[in-house]
Structure formats: C-alpha cells, structure tokens
TrEMBL record:
Residues 1-75 are annotated as: Disordered. Part of the signal recognition particle protein translocation system, which is composed of SRP and FtsY. Belongs to the GTP-binding SRP family. FtsY subfamily. Keywords: Cell membrane, Cytoplasm, GTP-binding, Hydrolase, Membrane, Nucleotide-binding, Receptor. It comes from the Bacteria. It catalyses: GTP + H2O = GDP + phosphate + H(+). The keyword Membrane applies. GO terms for biological process: SRP-dependent cotranslational protein targeting to membrane. Its EC number is 3.6.5.4. This is Signal recognition particle receptor FtsY. Coiled coil: none annotated. It comes from Desulfonatronum thiosulfatophilum. GTP binds at residues 278-285, 360-364, 424-427.
Amino acid sequence: MGFFSKVKKWWSKDDDQQPTTTQEVEPSAPPTEEPAPSEPTDAAPPAGLPPIVPDQEQIQPQPEDQPQVQPQDQPEWQAQVLQALRGAEPKLSVWLEHTLAGVETPGNELWDRLRFLFQALQAPADEAEEFISKFRIWLEDMGYEQVAEFRSELQYRLALALDLEDEEDERDRLFLKLSEGLNKTREQLTKRIDALLSAHRKFDDPFWEELEEVLIMADVGHQSAGKLLDRLKARVRKEKIEESEAFREMLRQELAAIFPEPKSVAVPQGPEIVLVVGVNGVGKTTTIAKLAHRAQMQGRKVLVAAGDTFRAAAIEQLGIWAKRTGADFFTKGEGADPAAVAYEAVDAALKGGHDVVFLDTAGRLHTKVDLMDELRKIKRVLGKKLPGAPHRCLLVLDATTGQNALSQTKLFNEAVTVDEIILTKLDGTSKGGIVVAIALEHNMPISFIGLGEKMEDLRPFSGEDFAKALVN
C-alpha cells in the first residue's frame, strides 16, 4: 500500500502491466490549460514514457500533438531520471540522486523536479501535489534550509509513498542503518565471540561455558542464553561443525529463526484501532508520531488520540507531533477519563472515515496494579464500541533498560495481551541482546525498532537482517 492510488512501474518486465492500485480514490480533476512556454526546453522521452514537461510552478500533461524538441535540449537530470526508471529493479536512491542533482535548497526548482518524477511514474496529479504540499509544510516547521538536511527523510517518504520499502535498494539502505545502530552491541557480543573462536580449537565444555558468559554480558539473559546454547549444541553435534566460519553462519541462522513474524490484522469494518502502551521514558509519544507518519505516507487517514490525560504536557506534545505528521488529533483535555477518550476517539474515527487510530496511554510503572487495571478497562471499552478492537496492542520498550524489559513485557502482556513489541533506542546501547531475550522468553513479534530520533529512524524489524548485522 502506498500514498499514491496508482503508479506506473516502468521497471516491470510485464509490458501489459496495469497501474498498481492501493485504494479506491476519486478520479483526479482534469488539469487547467496553461499557455505553452514560448520556447520549448525539453525533449520527448523514449518510446513508452510520458511526455517530458518543462519545469514550471504546476506541471501539466502536454498535448499529443505538441512539437517535440531536440534531445540535446533536454535537461540532463531528466534524461537520467527516465533512464533510471527503466532499470531492471527500482532504485529509489538513484532516482533521487538524479532528481536532486544540483539542487541545494528547497524551492520551486525542487518542487518542479518532484512533479516531473511523479509525472514520469504516472501518479495522479492531485495526489502528487498533496505529497509535495505536506512535505513543504514539514520543512517549514522543522526549519531545514539545505537538501542535505532532509534528503534521507524525503527518500523515506518516497519509499513509503511508492510502496518501495521492501525493494532491494531500500532494504540495503536499511541494513546499513541497522548495522551502524548495532555497533555497540556488536562490540560487546560479536568481537568476544570471535576471540572465543580463535582461542578454542574445538567446541568443548569450556567453549560453551565461556560463550554463555558472553551472551549474558550482552543482556541475552541466563535463561535465554541457555535456550540458545541448547540449539547451537544440537546443530554442532548433528552437522559435525568444526570450522569457525561454519559456526558463525550457524549462529546467524539460529538467531534469525527465533523471531516470529507479526500477524496480519484483519479489520472487517471501521478503522483499525491500535492501543500503544509502555512505561514512562521509553519514547512512546514519539513512536506514535512515527507510526502515524508511516501510515500517512502509506495513504491512510490517521487519527491520533491523547489517552494520557494525567499530564497536560503529554497532550500538548502529542498534538504537536500529530500536526507535524499531518494526522488528525483527538483530545478531551487534562484530567479526562482515559476510557472515555478511547470510546469517543473511536466514535470520531468512525464518523471521520479514518483508516487507523493510534491511542496513546499514560506512561505507567508496570508494577502499579491500579494503573494496569485502567488499561484493562480501556481495552474493554474499545471492544464494546467496536467489536474486535483494539486490533493491535503495541508495547514500546527501551532497549537500554536491558533485562528490565522482560519484566515489563510479562506484566503488560498479562494486563492487555501484547501483540507486538517496538524496541526503541537500539542504536544507543550495547545491550542489544535483549532483542534475542524477548524473542526467546516471550515469543512475541518485534515489529519495529528505533535507530535514532528522526521520523525515518523507526524501521520494520527483520530477524534475518538483525542476525546478519550482529554476526558479520
């Protein structure tokens, strides 16, 4: 699913491919006619591509009978963009490199170039303008003045809008980000394992004892380390593994295999209701903002509801983030009943035609029984208002807390049944082994990981990529 209701995949090998449709939309209004420029500046593209349109404030399709200009008059960046779109695989980083070539600051030239890219992809003109408008508002709000400051955010938005996040080019970019984020954990874990493999010529009892210590030091935990060691020992015996590199590959495979995939959510009617829980200080509010941002860029209408009514500052902060992401915001103010907020937020979403509701809750200590009871009440109220709600319950955990995250997971799951976990601040800790511990102890899917403070830094979790980045 993407922001655009349809795009043309020029890189597809299927010449008869129909535009990809992600949702039903009203047909775009026909563009208003504007006088043709006095001197043509662009050339017609290679056969099969849409006509090239000169940079101007509002790009419009050219009439079929408009005279073609000589290829040498075509701006080089346009030719390179069109050529890149015809590649065997979509490479968003290359498209963006050509589109932004020579552009250093935001302005009309940047917006015209984005219009050209969207037109080449045959995205609906009104949706292209909406994308650009939202991005311009965000830039002004953030105060960015150089392309270098926001290029990665633009690429992230385009990946979501064009439904390219799972393509190889974007996966490679994410893997690099993940590898950088796991540097501290890799120092703690992988280098010690390498030293251990160098010091031992065979996989005997002393080796396994030292490996267990290494795992525990990386916050995998005693019980989880034991489970992982049992798997490794069994495979070493069965496959008669003797070489260090074969052991590393086996370790990568075993790590990747322990992470369950998030379940697909079926919402028969009404908006998807997502309940977000977690203790104070884990980054819950900003995580909700990042989730709302992703959903917006994927073409969904989003409502963010302020269920943390204990602190006026929490409501204000969430409102600011909702505005920045372009999501609608629902609040009843400080001191309101959180369950009432949940109930009325769903009602507002039903009336407003929203696709998804992210419901914030008060950051609470998992040891406070009365506050956990309140979460149960919120869940019951949601189910009464909309059968099946909440459709997902997301627990936000701080990776830097290490083993304490396990007890939080246990108690929140007992209260409201956690469906998925989001692990924040993974880039700032040497305790990344907690990811392994959560998977082995609770068998819960980790849907997203936080690798920084920017919107683009909340990324889908891949167990395979995590294992490759950790054990290289």
